[in-house]
Sequence to fold (378 residues):
Amino acid sequence: MKRILLAASLMLAGSLALAENQLGGIRPVTPLDEESEARQIPNVVNSDVRQVRNYPDQPPVIPHKIDNYQLDLNANKCLTCHSRTAVEVSQAPMISVTHFMDREGQTLASVSPRRYFCTQCHVVQHDVEPVVVNGFVDVDRVLDFMRGKKEGGQ
Amino acid sequence: MLNFLKRLWFIIRQPATHYSLGFLTMGGFIMGIIFWGGFNTALEVTNTEAFCTSCHEMRDNVYQELKPTIHYTNRSGVRATCPDCHVPHDWTDKIARKMQASKEVWGKIFGTINTREKFLEKRLELAQHEWARLEANDSLECRNCHSAESMDVTRQSKLAAEAHERFLFTGERTCINCHKGIAHHLPDMSQQAFVEPLTPTTGHLERGPVRLAEIEAYLQSARP
Fold:
């Protein structure tokens, strides 16, 4: 009898959870046998304003559109503006010196092959709210908090 | 030969004996329409995308690359076809280009780029021809649609506006200097400069092992 009751209550709880879509996560709410409406493709941020890095060695995000930029063995469209020799024309930030280093830390004459494919680390941003909650706190704010705590403690 | 020409000239000089003046003038007029009209129609047929992509060399390579770009698919549905960019619109320039294109017929007949591999091997050379042509005519084919007067930089991104103000409006650079590879994939650019830097730098080194003595000799020669 107890077992039957337990099973029944579990089933009830499970169906309630399903009804409220608590398993949803970032998946749309539509049931599996129905077709959900496609979300609008968000716009790429094209402000050309450099963004703050969340930590010093974060690869800076790309503040402009990179639609149809060719990035393969033949050509690297990003380097038309960001290469060492191009920045006078483009006034774009030059790729950092770390991009000239091989994995032994030897500085090469041109971009190291392991740093050639820009979009492995650098990405554009979309004009959307974050899909999942992010609890990241900037280290400066942590330091501020620590200082405040210390001062408060004394 | 000379006798034949003399006889021909003699016949041409003679007044027509059997045909009336009306027949000759009207006939000339009608034949003129047919030949001139036919010539122009044939010219226009060769100036369409359907004609260009009737050859697999164009259809399977460059045409496929054009399709995802803004010049083929975009929000307003206005698009450029092959001849819009690759054939001048003015009549004399167009005829000159068409005469050059007879070499492309030769290439087609003898299969210069009839496989993907051959095409990729030739791609840099082919691209360089187009870049040189557009640089020489101040990007005329771009400007057939994109006029600097009508360009509203306030509607552009900050970066684009600055670049156009600095280089396009001053005439320092022309469209193709910066906008290479916008409609087709780029060839191997490792020996090429996309945009010539303002400060001249030393040229690209040839691929392959370079001996120290050669480098030293090069540095000597580069010294002012």
